[in-house]
Structure formats: structure tokens, C-alpha cells
Design brief:
Helix content of chain A: 55-70%
Distance between the termini of chain B: 46 Å
Largest sheet of chain B: 2 strands, antiparallel
Number of helices of chain B: 23
Order of helices and strands of chain B: HHHHHHHHEEHHHHHHHHHHHHHHH
Number of helices of chain A: 4
Shape of chain A: flat
Mean pLDDT of chain A: 88
Number of strands of chain A: 0
Largest interface: A-B, 69 and 64 residues
Oligomer: heterodimer
Strand order of the largest sheet of chain B: 1-2
Distance between the termini of chain A: 65 Å
Mean pLDDT of chain B: 83
Amino acid sequence: MRIKSPKDFWAGLMFIAFGLAAMIIALMNYQFGTSVRMGPGYFPAVLGGLMVFLGTVITATSLAIEGPKVPRLNFRPLLLVLTACVAYGYLIKPAGLVVATIALVFVSALGGHEFKWKEVSVLALLLIVFSVVVFVKGLTLPFPLWPEVFE
Amino acid sequence: MDILGNLVLGFSVAVTPIHLLYALIGVLLGTLIGVLPGVGPVATIAMLLPITFKLSPVAALIMLAGIYYGAQYGGSTTAILVNLPGESSSVVTCLDGYQMARRGRAGPALAVAALGSFFAGCVATLIIATAAPPLAELALKFGPWEYFSLMVLGLIAATVLAHGSLIKAIAMVVLGLLLGLVGTDVNSGVLRFTFDIPELADGFGFAVVAMGMFGIAEIITNLELKDKREVFTSKVTHLYPTKEDFKRSWGAVLRGTALGSFLGILPGGGALLSSFASYTLEKKVSSHPEEFGKGAIEGVAGPESANNAGAQTSFIPMLTLGIPGNAVMALMIGALMIQGIAPGPQVMNDKPELFWGLIASMWVGNLMLVILNLPLIGMWIKLLTVPYRYLYPSILVFMAIGVYSLSNNPFDVLVMALFGLLGYICVKLDCEPAPMILGFILGPLMEEHLRRAMLLARGDATMFLTKPISAGFLIAAVLLLLMVALPAIRKKREEAFQEAD
């Protein structure tokens, strides 16, 4: 058996996985109820079943009909952008807005095509000033600016 | 029903200085992100959702709406000058707009786009004012059957009109519905799919999901492309179109407005679909179709009017039925819910100042856009020279701040990143995220109506078919599905979207 349409093949598998997970979790943990009095498990289990069905159809078709290949995944921008965001979220409370912004800007800039220290530093500085003026002073969001130890 | 009185009420709300200010901020931001390729209104509105906490509901909606239709104006500027769609709905404007610019007629192209959009905006505002009240009146009579069937129709229509594979779009809707169920079940109090994570008890935050699926995923995809923008910087002179231009454009503007207004109301419609349909129509009715693609002014006037009309009339189902027709409207509903307002037909009666103020502000906003766009065009052109490598870290900072500030919890940022990952995978597998967002917002509502309907009917599912309005919605949904399944129509649909690529 040959996969003729890889994009659809993987998409179908993804839907089957999500659908199965939803169905199994719903059936095992939540009361199903009856169609008159639906329990918390009813709707998710039905939806999960529907998704497994749709996923199966998509996967089955991908074995029969030619389709496009999955384009290459670029892990560099993917990982760096995601890491930059998560780092910001987990740094802002202990380390303050300044450190968090610097981390986000530098890490995410590494995911681009060009990386120039000077440019990125200026950008980080501008964004810190902007964040402080608009978000901390303007919208009065309660963010610490500096690491906790200094305050 | 007194439309005039309502409009007066609306304008009295819209022209208060604070609301004028928010309309101005909205349209400026909208134009800005419309001009910049790679930043869309969905991501921007999602980014601003947390901030709207601090505003009054009227101000919040006025600003967010301004971003949406402002983006339609801004998108055309980039399409004409750089041959890049600043906004997805300006894809077709590139075809003829850029050709006009290459022949030194960028000025008239920009002017016709702005004036056509303004005309369309005025008409669409009037259409909303006349069509919305009767629709809301009708919707007030809806029971759970009608609502459930309407949502089915809305979701099906959204997938039929969406780009790409139908079955994958439906699967994405179902995925969205399921993700919408995460959290506490209102009927039983049971925590569903929360995996003992306390932060998930209230479900996924709407802004968090939207920002991840659209904002983060968009940035990662953009970073894969080389930043190769070439601004057409020969100075824009002779802004004003000639008599000949006017003569050729006005018909296209009228047709574009009519088509856009109609398609905008349909679920799944809105700006994008309207502009494609209008371009195809103009090419068909034109007496010189060979000029299309080589700088025909009708090819700019029609789609640009249509996308603005469609952007605005897509507010009708959102405002009257509480049902989003596209991803932007789903975000608007999110904004209403953040403010503690349950979207639906009762909004018009309970909060007339919100409803009519928003409508009046659309006209005011359109006026601002014409005034801003034509003289300030030079400033927008300058903005185009800002490279993406400065833009995306800035966007990431705003998104991270916005999400974090929702509950001052880094967990939300983590969830956003995970949805960014999911969004990226979906893009790679050609699964559109927009239907998922619609499903996400409708998931809990659909379950609620289904449960109530079945309980009231004592488990009799045929009630969905014996109630005439409900049956009508379901039949329409089935017809839509059948239509797409027909080979001839399927081919047409693929062609229509192909022109975009």
C-alpha cells in the first residue's frame, strides 16, 4: 500500500488520534446519560466518534487519490518562536519585564533570516520602553520591571 | 420600528469624543496592519481582546470593528504598490492594481479603491440598519431546535465557503467543537478534559487559542519565506482618477457593493469571498475582458468595494443571531462575552446604544478612512519599508503581554505556544484554522441547545425536522453539502479559489 496524498494521510491520522482520545476519555470518565437527559459524556463522545469517522475517510482517500506532499517543516523558527513566548511568560514574574522582553526579542530574532546584534538590541530597547509606557503606565498592568531580588 | 430614530441614537453614541477616539484608533490600527503583509486582522483583534477588558463594551466593539474594515482599506494599498496582499481579501486587487501602478497609475488605483470602499461602507451600514432589526425580531422566537439547526447550517456553510478540502474543514470544525467543551460542564459541574490542571477549569481562553492558531502560526510560516518585499516607490502622483476612470468604475463599484453585501451576510462569507466573487463577475460582464490582469480599473474597483461591503455585512448574523460567520466575528463574540454580554438577538433590545452605536461608528469610521487614507498615503508607503525582522518580535511581545495579562499566569502563554504549534501543523497539512475557531466558540452553545431541545422533546429527535424553521436550516445545510459534492460545482469552487494562488 502506498500513501498517495501524504498531507491528507497525516491530517486524517491527526483527526483520528484527537477523536479517539476524546471518545475514550469521555466514555471512561464522564456519565453518558440518555438522549433525553444527556450526561457530560454524551456530546464529546459523539463528536469524538464523528471525528474518528471523518479522519478515517480522509486517510482512506489519501491512499487512493494523488495529492501534495507535506512541505518540509522548519524546526528552527518553530522552536525558537515558541521558546521565546514561553520564556517570556515564565520569566516576567520572577525576572521582571525588562529581562523577559530581552529574552523574547533575542530568542525570536534568532529564528529569522538575519541576526544583527546591534539591530536586535535597539529593537529590544524600544519594545521595553513601549511596553512600560503603554502597558505598565498607560493600562496599569501590574508587571514587575526588575527581578524580584532587587525590589 | 423607527430606523431613523435608532440611527440618531447610534450617532449620538458614535460621535462622543471617547468613541470617536476609539474608532480612530481602530481604523488607524486596522490600516496599519492591513498595509503590513503578514499581520492580519484576526491576529490583531485576538491580540487586543485582553485589553478590551478595560474599555466599555461600546468602545471595545467600535475599536475592534474599525480594525476589521480598516484592514480592508490598508490591504489594498499594499496590493497595489507592492503586489503583495497586505490582507488576504486584497489578493485579487494585486492582479490589476499592481499593473496599474507599474504603468504609473497607482494614484487612480488607490483613489478608486478608497472611494469604492467608502461607497460600499455607506451602503453596507444602511443595510445593517434596515436588515438587522427584523432578523433579530425573528430570532427572538427561536427555540433550542432552531438555534441548534442554525448553528449546524452556519458551520456547514463556513466549511463550504472555506478554502480547500471540505471534509478536512468539517473535521476542523469538530475539533473546534471538542476543544470548546474543555472545562466545567455547566449542566453537571463535571470537569471535562482538564487533566487535573486547575487553569483549565474555565476552558481554554478564546483569545489564547485564537492568538496561537492565527498569530503564532502565521509568524512561524512567514519566517520560512524570504523577506523579499520590493516597494514600488516611484512617487504616487495624480491621485485623482480621470473622467474615463470614473465612467468605467462606477458600475463595478455598484455590482461589487451588492455582491459583497449579500455574500457578507452568509455564514462563512465576509471580505475574502466577496472580493473573489466580484473579480470573477467583473471579468464576465466586462466588454473588454482581455484587459483584466493588465491593469483594468474595474478589477480594482469591484473587489475593493465588495470586500468592504462584505466585511461590514458579516456583522449582521453576529449581531442579530449571536452566530459568527467568520473568524473575525467569532472574535467579536469573544469580546462581547469578555464584557459579560451574551450575544444574541436580545442585545439589540437590551443594549440599543451598543448596537446602534456600533453601526453608526462604522459609517464614521469609513469617513475617517477616506480622509486618512488619501492624504496620508505617503506615510503608509513608508511603513512598507519596515522589514519583517523588526515586526515579528514586536508582535510576539504584544501577544505575550496580552495573553499573560489575562490572568497573570504563565500557563496561558504556554497554552498559546501549544496552539501555535497545532496551528503550524494544520497549515502544513492544509487544514484551515478558521473553521476550527468557529467550532470552538459554538461548541458549548451547541451542546447546550441540543441538550435542552432533547429534554423538552423528551428524546424525540424528529422535532428538529417537524419544526419548520429548524427543518429549513437543516435542509439548507444538506443542500449546501450536496452542491459541493456535485462535480461541476466542486470544480467551479476550486477554480474560484485557485485564482488566488
